[in-house]
C-alpha cells in the first residue's frame, strides 16, 4: 500500500494522506484528497441506495 493514498479519518474529521490513524478510524483508500473529503457523503449515498434496494425487495413479497 502506498503512502500516497488518501483516507478520511473519523477521529479527526478530515482527509489524511497515508495510514496515519488507526484502521478503525479510517475510511478508504480514496484516489485523491477531494474524494476522501467527501467520504461521508459517498457512504451515505451508498447506504441509501442499498436501503432503497432492500425496501423494493421487501415490497415485492
Structural write-up:
The protein is α+β, with helices and mostly antiparallel strands and 61 residues long. It has one domain. It has 2 helices and 3 strands; from the N terminus they run βββαα. The chain has a 3-stranded antiparallel beta sheet with strand order 2-1-3. Strand 1 and strand 2 form a beta hairpin. This is SPOR domain-containing protein. It comes from Nocardia aurantia.
Strand residue content: 15-25%
Largest sheet: 3 strands, antiparallel
Largest sheet strand order:
2-1-3
* Oligomeric assembly: single chain
Q: Radius of gyration in whole Å, from Cα?
A: 15 Å
What is the first-to-last residue Cα distance? 44 Å
Which term fits the overall shape?
elongated
Give the helix tally.
Answer: 2
Structural class: alpha+beta
Protein name: SPOR domain-containing protein
Organism: Nocardia aurantia
